[in-house]
Target: Sigma-54-dependent Fis family transcriptional regulator
Amino acid sequence: MSLKKLLCISPSAAAVAGALGAPDDCGGMLAEWDIHSVASLREASRALRARNYPVGLVLDLPGTEGCEATERFFREHWNVQWIGVLAPDALESKPCRALVATWLADFHTRPVDRQRLLHTLGHAHGLALLRSQPAASAATSGLAALTGDSAAIARLRAQIGKVAQSDAPVLIWGESGSGKELTAQAIHTHSARAAGPFVPINCGAIPPALIQSELFGHARGAFTGAARDKVGLIESAAGGTVFLDEIADLPKDLQSNLLRFLQEKTIYRIGSTRSIAVDVRVIAASHVNLQQAVADGMFREDLYYRLNVLPIDVPPLRERKDDLDMLAQHFFHTFATEKAPHLKGFGTEALRAIRQHDWPGNVRELINRTRRAMVLGEGRLIAPHDLGLAPCSTQERGAGLDASRIDAERAAIGASLERAGRNITHAARDLGVSRMTLYRLLAKHGIQT
Ligand SMILES: Nc1ncnc2c1ncn2[C@@H]1O[C@H](COP(=O)(O)OP(=O)(O)OP(=O)(O)O)[C@@H](O)[C@H]1O
Ligand SMILES: [Mg+2]
Model:
């Protein structure tokens, strides 16, 4: 039997021994664990990058590193099941209470009942295993992790957590390369369907002549060349989630078929009159504004409303520039095996140029530029030109001020819309502008309502 991996964070080794006891205590329960102890959050981050720990034990939260650093740490490593051991008076502090409520799977106060603590760790491990099962398959391993600690990504994670509890259709909007598929995968992974399949379908990539048979399958003899029955992609997702990417590209006649499926939860294979019940959750995504597509007569309104039960916006990368450093470092580690051996990381100028750039291709563009720099970079540190970016000249830093102003405007509008529950009248009042001005600003920044 393989040992259960546990990461223990505590400034003192004595505290770890005090909480967990000796291996033969508690009927040898501790012997089931492979424990790695670290003394700080920084060391813990390093350990988590090197190895997957499903469960973490934090002794004396938030320790010497302060609540903000601890919160940042938990945000980054949100997919670990964290258990806390606290001093009896720790919960009297408001920030500590907030940390416990938001990020911990469970906590114990001192004096610790070791047997109970080991039971808690065991439960947390079981839960982590369940949640990680689909992510452990080749197709999705590691993909369910959304890197970033900006407020925007924290909001996205919170939305994913809520939406994962429901079985209703989800409609994800976001620019190309912003992380729509990763978001859909995270919803699936955190849902009760996690043990079932996650089947992504790019509606824009399948030739129109084939799409009906790909989605719904066909019966033998349905058309020339249909030598045997074929199970469609929707049916193959039974018990799990089907992800309909670029849903706006679905031809109109198939939009009707999809609508029928959403209403009746049954499908007909082409050439068959037998209805087949399929238990599948539908998540759709689009980079075009579907409301506009409806207005232009390109997308069925009734299908739009069927799909748009739980809407999620994935923010473009330029609206979460605070994530850029972390994402760049993340991809540097992800593609470490491809890098030139002399390369040690990003230079300061490169990081500055990354912040300066507007990232129209979003995270996918960051991945591509980083990989290119890692292969072609000639110095010890990545320079702006390795990334295909111009260095920030003094003049451009001036332009950066304009960019910062625009960023601030966009952020203020985003925050107001959020506060106003996306109600334009309330958001306009909150911002102190007229509704017309707000509409103009929304169009200027390309913000969807
Ligand atoms: N927050 C993130 N952390 C780590 N990787 C990310 C993040 N967001 C996106 N990625 C990675 O960026 C790439 C693009 O993401 P994804 O395919 O989910 O975007 P998309 O919105 O579906 O793009 P497209 O519109 O081109 O289909 C993927 O390799 C994904 O793993
Ligand atoms: Mg996609």
Q: What stands out?
A: The chain has four domains: 4-132, 151-314, 318-392, 395-445.
